[in-house]
Design brief:
Blueprint lengths: L1 H8 L4 H22 L2 H26 L7 H46 L3 H20 L8 H4 L2 H7 L1 E2 L2 E2 H19 L1 H11 L1 H6 L4 H26 L11 H11 L11 H20 L5 H24 L5
Antiparallel strand pairs: 1-2
Length: 322
């Protein structure tokens, strides 16, 4: 029986599953009517999907034993590019151009980290300020409106409407989760990514191209953050230059709460999405209870610390080195 329990505990997303159960029990006891309302759950699930897209990219980075502090700014820059470029390129052209910008942000930072030998925290912190500054310089502090004909375009509706009866943001988050899960657990790239984060020297000795793997992870992380920005603005086209501000902290929190160890080599994409659900749920429930907005950061900080301690102890108990 004990080996079976240890095998179950070895799943990196177990901590987030337990967290979701505890949170739901607590919210039900405190505010059952408000929490279980259709409007609350609809909003929570919608924004969980948006944050989940970013958190999954962050999870891949953390699994490789790096971190990306720039995803909030990349999210904002891509969204602003999508709206700003639309009059000249049309919706399809603006979508492609915006995603290319997002991928380029990750590619440049990935090269700086692996080729320049710089800490990812410093590189992406610089990216956070640089990309945010580009938004201000590019727009002059004011983002143009998304015209009605662009909102009615089939591609905009595909990103911001419904697909197969499912809200688009939720559909895309689920699709990305399935694809990335297959890539992570059933392809050589996934094995290389986890090996790189677990023990880079050992992975390199077995022929894993560490630099290429990390650059791919940074590029994919930025691409997902940018895609989340487009999905957001396709659904709610009003934007501003502070779009995505501090979102990187929520994405990192979601990934860590979801079971990603900052020491690398271990993580869960499903856990990252569940972590996003926890983060968004706390935000909405605190607002519903009339708590000051500053309490949200405090609660997330507490939950993050508890999650780190719990996930480390769980990993050690299950036989993983941390």
């Amino acid at each position: 029986m004990m080996p079976l329990i240890r095998q179950f505990a070895s799943g990196a997303g177990l901590g987030s599953m337990i967290g979701v159960v505890v949170m739901l029990v607590a919210f039900t006891a405190i505010d059952a009517g408000g929490w279980w309302s259709t409007r609350t759950l609809s909003n929570v699930i919608h924004f969980t999907a948006i944050l989940g897209l970013i958190a999954m990219g962050q999870a891949l980075i953390i699994m490789s034993k790096e971190i990306d502090l720039s995803v909030g700014s990349v999210y904002g820059l891509t969204g602003v590019a999508f709206i700003t470029l639309q009059p000249d390129l049309g919706v399809p052209g603006a979508t492609i151009a915006a995603l290319v910008i997002a991928a380029a942000c990750g590619l440049i930072q990935g090269f700086a980290v692996v080729k320049g030998g710089l800490p990812s925290m410093i590189v992406t912190l610089g990216g956070l300020f640089t990309f945010r500054g580009v938004i201000y310089v590019w727009t002059g502090g004011s983002v143009r409106n998304f015209p009605e004909e662009a909102r009615a375009h089939w591609l905009t509706r595909m990103f911001g409407g419904e697909i197969l009866g499912i809200e688009a943001a939720i559909f895309w988050a689920l699709l990305v989760l399935v694809i990335l899960s297959v890539v992570l657990w059933m392809t050589p790239f996934g094995n290389r990514l986890l090996a790189t984060g677990g023990n880079a020297e050992s992975a390199a000795s077995r022929g894993v191209l560490i630099d290429r793997t990390k650059i791919a992870a940074f590029t994919l992380c930025s691409l997902l953050a940018g895609f989340a920005g487009i999905v957001t603005l396709a659904d709610q086209p009003q934007t501003h230059v502070t779009l995505g501000d501090l979102l990187e902290l929520e994405a990192i929190s979601a990934a860590v709460i979801g079971g990603c160890l900052l020491s690398g080599g271990r993580g869960s994409l499903i856990g990252a999405v569940l972590g996003a659900f926890i983060v968004i749920s706390f935000r909405y429930e605190l607002i519903a209870l009339g708590a000051p907005s500053s309490w949200f950061i405090t609660f997330i900080g507490i939950v993050l610390i508890v999650a780190v301690i719990f996930n480390q102890k769980l990993a050690r108990w299950a036989g993983h080195s941390v």
